[in-house]
Automatic annotation (TrEMBL):
GO MF assignments: isomerase activity
Protein name: PhzF family phenazine biosynthesis protein
Active site (UniProt): 47
InterPro entries: Phenazine_PhzF-like (IPR003719)
Cellular component terms per the entry's GO annotation: cytoplasm
SUPFAM superfamilies: Diaminopimelate epimerase-like
Phylogenetic placement of the source organism: Bacteria, Bacillati, Bacillota, Tissierellia, Sedimentibacter
Domain of life according to the entry: Bacteria
Keywords per UniProt: Isomerase
Similarity annotation: Belongs to the PhzF family.
Length: 299
């Protein structure tokens, strides 16, 4: 029997019960895959992060991520939560560390501000996948309850990844965005066809403090709607540069995204896209966090 340190943390917010909740086990050494899956199912957050000790000079921690039904390679809000919990527990100073994930070994910046922390995670390799068309696109629009006329012009419906792929769907009306009531069963079937389990629907407004407002649906992995999604807004930043949809200085694009409004869990993500020769080459997301509770479980 061993005691494990368990945190419930809300990411991309400083207000409890908003943002995106994640479970974190900070001392996961010894847990089996089955035990981790059971803990994730019990907590029933969209993701729970398990921090393992490093056995390599190349990274400081190994983190695995589980939804209530399956393991995923990486998760934005649970990464923010994991490193926030680790920083608080170990009273860390500002530093850049590396963690091993299913998306590779990646840097994480821990910024200490007085007695609190802000976390910046560099995401994985940028990959531009299939642009949906024909029957697949029609099925997606039907599942979301939107029409072709409600899509943003020049914003192709495309699968993009920075470690965990999402279908990016730009629409032209924020009222439609917040009124969406997807057919989750249809989205699950489509996910099996296109081999992508997340759908990020967004609006864009260059004149707003928040360039992006969005909603993310991933019923195929047990998440009907995710409140605030790092692995959706990060790929979206790369996509906006790739398709030349926003102005930038050919060096860096930075913007804020607001998500979770439709389900009462609003949070804010800061996205940074490094650009070379008009192309996105690296994506990072930043966010704050707050501990909702801390306890121990004995297994």
């Amino acid at each position: 029997m061993k005691k494990y340190n368990l945190y419930q943390i809300d990411s991309f917010t400083k207000e409890k019960f908003t943002g995106n909740p994640a479970g974190v086990i900070t001392n996961a050494d010894g847990l089996t895959e089955l035990q981790m899956q059971k803990i994730a199912r019990e907590l029933n957050n969209s993701e729970t992060a398990f921090i393992f000790s490093s056995d390599s000079e190349f990274y400081d921690a190994h983190i695995r991520f589980f939804t209530p039904t399956s393991e995923v390679p990486i998760c934005g809000h649970a990464t923010i939560a994991a490193h926030y919990a680790r920083a608080v527990e170990n009273k860390l100073n500002s530093a850049v560390i590396h963690h091993k994930t299913g998306a590779g070994i990646l840097p994480v910046e821990i910024f200490k501000d007085e007695n609190d922390y802000k976390i910046t995670m560099t995401q994985g390799k940028i990959e531009f996948g299939t642009i949906l068309s024909g029957n697949e696109k029609e099925q997606l629009l039907t599942a979301l309850g939107i029409t072709n006329q409600e899509l943003l012009n020049n914003h192709p419906v495309q699968i993009v990844s920075t470690g965990h792929s999402k279908v990016l769907v730009g629409i032209n009306n924020p009222e439609i965005l917040h009124g969406l009531k997807p057919n989750y069963e249809m989205l699950v079937k489509l996910s099996d066809m296109i081999k992508c389990n997340g759908y990020y629907v967004y609006t864009i407004n260059p004149d707003d403090d928040f360039l992006i407002h969005g909603r993310m649906f991933a019923p195929a992995i047990g998440i009907n709607e995710d409140p605030v999604t790092g692995n959706a807004n990060g790929p979206l930043g790369a996509y906006l540069v790739h398709h030349n949809l926003v102005k930038h200085n050919n060096s860096m694009l930075k913007f804020k995204a607001k998500q979770g409004e439709a389900i009462g869990r609003t949070g804010i993500i800061e996205v940074s896209v490094k650009i070379e020769d008009q192309n996105p080459v690296e994506v990072a997301i930043s966010g704050e966090a707050v501990i909702v509770f801390h306890t121990e479980i004995t297994i």
